[in-house]
Amino acid sequence: MKRKSRTTHFAVCVDNRGYPASLELHKIYRVLPDDDAEAEGDIRVIDESGEDYLYSANRFVEIEPPQTVRRSLLHASKAA
């Protein structure tokens, strides 16, 4: 999953098989930059535990949410 250059990235989980407690299907997750993980085909997201973990990038589809949604997602991640 190649990322466009922007500060904060988001992706939707499209495959949570094997990780039902860690990943919610169709939920938007914040993506943290990790070039090494990306080179290996992985993505680093803040999952349901509130911590960042690596998952296979093919479990996610990157999205560009509207500004209102982006602000809401960033505010929610700071409040957690």
Gross geometry: globular
Q: State the oligomer.
A: single chain
Helix percentage: 10-25%
Tally the beta strands: 5
* Biggest sheet strand line-up: 4-3-2-1-5
Structural class, judged by helices and strands? alpha+beta
Report the span from N to C terminus.
27 Å
Q: pLDDT below 50 for ≥5 consecutive residues: which ranges?
A: none
**Average of per-residue pLDDT values:** 90
Total DSSP helices: 2
Please indicate the count of domains. Answer: 1
CATH level-two architecture: Roll
CATH level-3 fold name: SH3 type barrels
Beta-strand portion reads 25-35%
- Largest sheet descriptor: 5 strands, antiparallel
SSE ordering: EEHEEEH
The Cα radius of gyration reads 12 Å
Q: What is the CATH level 1 assignment?
A: Mainly Beta
Short description:
The chain is an alpha+beta fold and 80 residues long.
Task: List its salient traits.
5 strands; five-stranded antiparallel β-sheet; SH3 type barrels; 2 helices; 80 residues; single chain; alpha+beta
Describe, in plain words, how this protein is organized in 3D:
The chain has 80 residues and is α+β, with helices and mostly antiparallel strands. The protein has a single domain (9-79), classed as Roll (SH3 type barrels). Helices cover 22% and strands 30% of the residues. It contains two helices and five strands, in the order ββαβββα. The protein has helices spanning 35-39, 67-79, and strands at 9-13, 28-32, 42-46, 52-56, 60-63. Strands 4-3-2-1-5 form a five-stranded antiparallel beta sheet. The N and C termini lie far apart (27 Å).
